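Exercise 3.2. Students should predict the tertiary structure of the chain below and write it as structure tokens, then compare their answer with the key that follows.

Predict this chain's 3D structure.
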Amino acid sequence: MHVRVTKAQAQANREHIVETASELFRERGFDGVGVADLMAAAGFTHGGFYKHFGSKADLMAEASACSLGKSLTGAQALDVPGFINVYVNREHRDGRGSGCTMAALCGDAARQSDDVKATFAAGIEQILQTLAEKYPVGTDAAEGEGRKKMIDLLSRAVGAIVLSRACPDDSALADEILDVCRAEMFASLPVLPVDQVETP
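Answer key:
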């Protein structure tokens, strides 16, 4: 007997597939996960994939948008020093599947379609805008100064995780990269005069 799936259930199934794909792609890369593996991990049959998505590339873009959105939500809750602490650390480095999509998949995205690249560009732009507004520049800073500083800082944060992950898990270098980059990022933050520091 064939049970008809309601629209609400079909939408819930689709969201579950996107969530599962988002995690697996971050863990294994876009090319490291096949459609059959992905659907099995989500608890569905391979054949059901094309009821939800036109292609694996469509799912890659949607899963990336989903996880970049979560990174944005995380960034919205943090100030810039808080972002550095949460991002450039061992826990984030070791948590590939639950970590940042930029650190996990930017290298892969560079070899994908313009649709996937556009998804990354939009996600990166939103995170930059959110953090640039919080960057502690003085009142006499030039227009766009916070954005410039945040592009530099975000690039260093992502690079630190990528380089550290490329080293063996137990290597001293993996930790040294994180420790040095985190310290240098903090050292690069401006020290504002007391009258310009925002108090909660």
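Discussion points: DSSP finds ten helices and no strands in the chain. Residues 7-190 form a domain with the Tetracycline Repressor; domain 2 fold (CATH 1.10.357.10).
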